[in-house]
């Protein structure tokens, strides 16, 4: 059950720097930026955490949301996330990680609460720093690399021209899923968005 007295912390996972901006691994940043635009919030460097943060509400009088993009590299994301959760007094169950997922076909979005990290270094760092795994994950499918390409190289490469044709729509849909998790709950979001 969520606690209306505390805000939600939505963490877009990615790597800082222009050279990574269009990478598959940075889809979490893309979703966080879109959500900040939706709630009319400007992001800026947080004084207590190595992260860009935007604060606002979902809808008129809706839940308070903290949108964060850790500015450490992906495998060190946990430190800033834990610092923000502590600063804003966000329970672990109201932390939402938005990230790329190799084991889901491109463009599909899946929601889950808790569970393993599936080799995702950003999630591994978050679990360690938060002292638990019971946060929500909004997983953006990027599919498996073609041929024998190393998954590490694949996630750090840009979306293909074909993928980019749909990317804006898919990022928008993923932002819808994040909003649904916060306003309607994980189960509702799963039932509504796991069909496609």
Automatic annotation (TrEMBL):
The keyword Hydrolase applies. It is found in: Cytoplasm. The active site is at residue 25. The record marks 100 as: Stabilizes the basic form of H active site to accept a proton. InterPro entries: Pept_tRNA_hydro, Pept_tRNA_hydro_CS, Pept_tRNA_hydro_sf. TRNA binds at residues 20, 73, 75, 121. It catalyses: an N-acyl-L-alpha-aminoacyl-tRNA + H2O = an N-acyl-L-amino acid + a tRNA + H(+). Keywords: Cytoplasm, Hydrolase, RNA-binding, tRNA-binding. The record marks 15 as: Discriminates between blocked and unblocked aminoacyl-tRNA. The keyword Endoplasmic reticulum does not apply. Gene3D superfamilies: Peptidyl-tRNA hydrolase. It comes from the Bacteria. NCBIfam families: pth. This is Peptidyl-tRNA hydrolase. It comes from Micromonospora zhanjiangensis. The lineage of its organism: Bacteria, Bacillati, Actinomycetota, Actinomycetes, Micromonosporales.
């Amino acid at each position: 059950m969520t606690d209306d007295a505390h805000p939600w912390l939505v963490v877009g996972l990615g790597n800082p720097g222009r050279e990574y901006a269009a990478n598959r691994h940075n889809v979490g940043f893309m979703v966080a930026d879109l959500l900040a635009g939706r709630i009319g919030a400007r992001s800026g460097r947080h004084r207590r955490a190595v992260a860009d943060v935007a604060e606002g509400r979902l809808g008129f009088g809706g839940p308070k949301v903290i949108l964060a993009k850790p500015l450490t590299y992906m495998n060190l994301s946990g430190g800033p996330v834990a610092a923000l959760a502590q600063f804003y007094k966000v329970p672990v169950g109201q932390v939402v990680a938005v990230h790329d997922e190799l084991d889901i076909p491109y463009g599909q979005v899946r929601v889950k609460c808790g569970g393993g990290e599936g080799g995702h270094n950003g999630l591994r760092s978050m679990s360690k720093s938060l002292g638990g795994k019971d946060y929500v994950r909004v997983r953006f499918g990027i599919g498996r690399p073609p041929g024998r390409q190393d998954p590490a190289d694949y996630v750090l490469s840009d979306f293909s021209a074909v993928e980019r044709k749909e990317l804006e729509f898919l990022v928008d849909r993923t932002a819808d899923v994040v909003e649904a998790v916060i306003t309607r709950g994980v189960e509702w979001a799963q039932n509504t968005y796991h069909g496609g």
